[in-house]
Amino acid sequence: MKAEDISKMTSTALMTLVIVLAAFGPGLIGFGAADAANDLGGNVTRIGQPVLRMGGIELRLDPADGQTLTPGDEPVFTLTAFNTKGKPTTVTVETLMTFSRKPSRLSRNPAMPTEIRQSPLTLSIGKKETRIVSLSTHTKLPADSRVDVYLRATNAEEERSNPPADLIRMLSISTIVDPPAPQ
Amino acid sequence: MASYWPRLAGIAIGLGIAVMILALAGNRWRRLPSSGPVLSEHEGRLRELVIHYEPSAREIVLTPYRDFLGQLDKDITVDVVVPSRTAFDELVTGVGAVKCRLRPIIVDHAMSTWSRDRWLALAPVPGNDAITLWSPQGEMLAESWPERAGDERVSFDLARALGPTVRAERSSLYFDGGDFLADNRNVFVMPRVLKRNLQISVKDRAELLERFSSALKRNVILLDEAPDHHAGMFMASIGNNVMLVGDPSLGRQYFPESKAEGEALLPDGADFTPETQHLYDAVAAQSEASGYRVVRMPVVPAYDGRTFLTYVNSIIDSRDDKQIVYLPFYRGADRLNSAAKKVWEELGYTVRLVDCTSTYRYFGALHCLVNVLRRI
Predict the structure, then answer these.
(1) Nearest by CB to B18, which of A20, A28, A169?
(2) In this complex, do A8 and B6 lie within 8 Å of one another by their Cβ atoms?
């Protein structure tokens, strides 16, 4: 075996060892701690954009394009509803906005949020149709607050057979000015 | 091909050595050890507790800490999470002589004074004495609340300081420790946990309940309706299938009749509305339906929905010879205090009183300040 071959073999072996240990060895560090969201070894679900599903309808909510979301603005949202079924259907959508003021530093909890319910909106959607609806909130964003927007959807068929649907948080808006770092 | 053999041989040798090293590491390569069920609120003697002391909150916590720590038995260790040694020394001076052992856990970040909500303690599995601190994915409003952002790290600070008998794991779910009430059979979960997680970290309600059941190893009961607060503010499981549930109508009987005295206690006014009463009665009904004997306890919630004069926000120590409850009381609410003490005494508890007058206006009392790491 030539010296050159031994040198190549050795350097390749070292590089391989380092790469494999770097990839699989982090568990060796930080004994007793696992700052990974593994739920005690269980599978973890990663949700992208929230989707509300009711009776074959899929609902998504986004801030309308081109608007500012600062204190005093009245946000407008775009509701996208897609009927996955092969027949027309009707769904009623309720919108709830909650406003949580920036909490007191010393409190255990934020103060109770204020809730504003928008008038329910009933949509009729054809089979495999997508409808896009603009939702004007007519509600001014407060300063120094977090605003969460929830949807709940119902249709007559589901209501008869199932318990009331859950509220789903579709998006959050913050008007809280970053506090100074603690001294 | 002849020119590649040194590289191929090198890769094979490197892989072989790496596999041997990782295999020898043993535990590091295997899945992390599993954990036992969530600690019960009432079963077993207190052995190790965790409190936080942030000097900026001294006016809120020193009095209850003095009363509580001063009455703890000498076989109890209290880990005190502090931002500095100076803070720990200030606490020691402030609480005076105690029989329990105080141990500092010094952290290098902002923190709040509330220990309860940061993690849940899961018992060790047989053959392993490591307690697991199960902490949420993130703290509410941490992006704009520096103390909460620091609180996210506390369970890992504890694991680093106290390991290997304490380990920490972060869940992918969002919750506060106070959103749960656990005993030796069930875990009750607050309805708001659903809103924090649906379509954020779980697809649906069924998945959320399954994940909690799997992690906490108890039967999970999601409350249908409840006051919008942490469980320990209005309910307590105390053993022998007894659930204490707050009752505003009982609280009203003992609340000061004088407007001035009432407003001194609750400036926003006491909430005795039927809507609020219904929420407490709903908790009582669901507890009964789950097999508990429900005993009602006076409670006075304020209109702000956060400030409570509550007497279930307590710490239970089950010793061989007696059941002890560390019970909040509030100056200016003497009749309420007496009525609540009587309920506990009639249930067979030795009551040790803790002055929580300085804390309740910050939306918590004793149970909120103290987390239980270990019982035996």
Answers:
(1) A20
(2) yes
DSSP A167: P
Contact check, Cβ <8 Å, B14/A168: no
- Looking at residue B129, its pLDDT comes to 87
Mean pLDDT of A26-55: 59
B258-290 residue pLDDT tens: 999 999 999 999 999 999 999 999 999 999 999
Which residues on chain B are in Cβ contact (under 8 Å) with A6? Answer: 6
Looking at the domain assignment, is residue A153 inside a domain?
A: yes
What structural domains and CATH numbers belong to chain B?
32-375 (3.75.10.10)
Closest Cβ–Cβ partner in B143, B156, B363 for A35: B156
Pairing of strands B77-82, B46-52: parallel
The DSSP code sequence of A11-46 is: HHHHHHHHHHHHHH-GGGSSTTEEEEE-TTT-----
**Residue A28 is assigned to a structural domain of this protein:** no
Inter-CA distances, B7 with A8, B26, B73, B302, B365, Å? 6, 29, 67, 75, 67
Q: Tens digit of pLDDT for each residue in A80-104? A: 999 999 999 999 999 999 999 888 8
- Give the pTM: 0.86
What is the C-alpha separation between B133 and B153, in angstroms, rounded? 11
- B198 secondary structure, DSSP code: B
Q: Answer yes or no: do A169 and B199 touch at CB < 8 A.
A: yes
Chain B residues in contact with A100 (beta carbon < 8 A): 141
pLDDT at A33 (0 to 100): 43
Domain annotation covers residue A112: yes
What is the rounded distance in angstroms from the CA atom of residue B163 to the CA atom of residue B105? 12
> Where residue A129 sits, what CATH number does that domain have?
2.60.40.10
Q: Which residue of A has its CA nearest to B367?
A: A108
Domain presence at residue A101: yes
Q: For residue A169, what is the nearest residue in chain B, using CA coordinates?
A: B195
Q: Residue A61 above 50 pLDDT?
A: yes
Tell me, what's the pLDDT at B182? Answer: 98
Residue of chain A whose Cα is closest to the Cα of B112:
A106
Structural domain for A74, as ranges = 52-174
Number of domains in chain A: 1
Average pLDDT score over chain A? 83
